[in-house]
Amino acid sequence: MTDFGTVYVVDTNTLSQLGRRRRAGTFFLEKARIPSEVLHEADQFHDLQALQGLEHPTTPSVLQWLTRVMATVPMDDTRLVDLYANRGGADPLVVACALDGRDRERQYLNPQEWAVVTADNAVRAKAEEFGLRVLSNTEFAALIDTAEDSGTPE
Question: Superkingdom of this entry's organism (predicted)?
Answer without folding.
Answer: Bacteria
